[in-house]
Write a structure and sequence with these properties.
- With 192 residues, the chain is α+β, with helices and mostly antiparallel strands.
- The longest helix is centred in the middle third of the chain and has 18 residues.
- The protein contains 2 helices and 15 strands.
- The chain is globular, with a radius of gyration of 16 Å.
């Protein structure tokens, strides 16, 4: 018997252009006025400690319930559905749910340090599980810098309206380089 296991990690990173420009503009208008706070990472040794990895240059985030957009949430669902069909793995056929988007704001000199998405805070309440997929949505591209980096410093080009889906595990470390000018807005959700 022959199995078709794909060992190329890039195979499991997919980009879909699923958010129309008007929806991106509507979201940007609404999230530009919400409250943001500096992002922190959970300490891998002691999960009761959170800390920045980039000092004052760490991006700012806003919680999952600060603003909702039905079109975006439908686009996230569609991207997950499309991803599962494209990957075509019998062991990855569905998902139990996905988180509401968390809004990311990268002003000048802000970045996200290298990390993996082991998001335990999603599962502190009624939801139990582990994140299996990261869903990153780019909301604008009128900034300089802020490149998304993965795999030996490979730049993954992302444009306004793109939704990137990839596994949320230790094989997919990633980072966002410092923004040189403008403001980079994105959002992220995780499926389980």
């Amino acid at each position: 018997m022959t199995y078709n296991f794909v060992k190329d990690l890039n195979y499991y990173v997919r980009i879909y252009n699923n958010i129309d420009k008007e929806t991106c503009d509507e979201i940007l208008k609404n999230i530009s006025t919400i409250n943001y706070s500096q992002h922190t990472f959970t300490n891998p040794v002691d999960i009761n400690i959170t800390e920045t990895q980039s000092g004052d240059n760490e991006l700012e985030i806003s919680g999952n319930n600060s603003y909702r957009n039905e079109k975006l949430e439908k686009n996230i669902w569609n991207s997950l559905y499309q991803y599962h069909n494209d990957i075509n793995c019998s062991w990855l056929t569905t998902w139990a749910g996905y988180s509401l988007p968390r809004w990311n704001k990268y002003s000048e000199n802000k970045q996200m340090a290298p990390h993996v998405d082991r998001i335990k805070s999603l599962f502190d309440g009624n939801i139990k599980g582990d994140p299996t997929l990261t869903i990153l949505c780019m909301l604008n591209d009128d900034f300089e810098g802020g490149e998304f980096i993965m795999f030996d410093n490979e730049i993954i080009p992302l444009n306004k309206g793109d939704i990137m889906v990839f596994p949320s595990n230790f094989l997919y470390p990633h980072a966002v380089m410092p923004v040189k000018s403008g403001v980079r807005y994105s959002c992220v959700s995780w499926s389980w």
